[in-house]
Design goal:
This protein is of the alpha/beta class. The protein folds into two domains: 72 residues, no CATH class; 182 residues, no CATH class. It contains ten helices and ten strands. It is elongated and about 65 Å long.
Length: 263
Amino acid sequence: MASHLQHLFSNMSLELFRLPAQVAAASPLFLLPSELRLLIYEFVFAYPTSSAIPLLASQQLRPLLTCRQFYQEAEQLAFARTVHYLNCAGNTNIQRRLLVLDPGQVSTIQHIRVSTTAGRFYERMQPLRFHIDHIRQPPLTLNTLTIALDVPSLEEHQREADIMKRVRDQDMLLHALWYYKNTNKVIVENLTFRKRMRSRVTGTWTCLDEDDGAYIADELLWRLEISEFEDYSLVPWQDHALLTNGSSGLYTAPSQNNLGQNV
């Protein structure tokens, strides 16, 4: 039902937005009680429950163009339910998308998906992390932060030096993520060479579906969900205890009920 409503509103939104305000206000939708309209908005902006890649934010937020009243009533819910895509591969400014939004809209965001490479992850993510750590305004308090890594090529899979670098970068990436706070859950996709990794970061591992081509030769791709995080005591790559005897100070993410709007 959610996908049907999303498709329906996507097709009609631009046309309705051009209508005079009095015509839009006469829509049967706005004759319903506000409680029922809220339920409809929750269906329209339903957070994806499967592991499939969700719609782009530009598509997911399109129903807000229906009319001004729709926008005013559903804006906060829409931005909270929508997965917002950021890119920090290459020289792309990871904050670019956030900077074009109103600070009030940014503060309601609860789901972010970042496309990046495993190398230099700590440095690439630092601008965004300032907002997640509430050091810079507007602050971000996330329900899910998904990191979608690039997939190594077949050539990289066959060169031992490239394999060792990928494993090392992945270990460093997980250690960096282990220090995140104000995030309920971190999901890392396209991890590979799992047996070689030394990280002791704990979480739920899921093998990505090989039938969809999510594999590299004989090496599977993995998805890791992390919901327990380390305290800020050391810079991740200087914390040798993480690679040897371990360290104390686990931080458990707050429950969804403590994250503001429950989605």
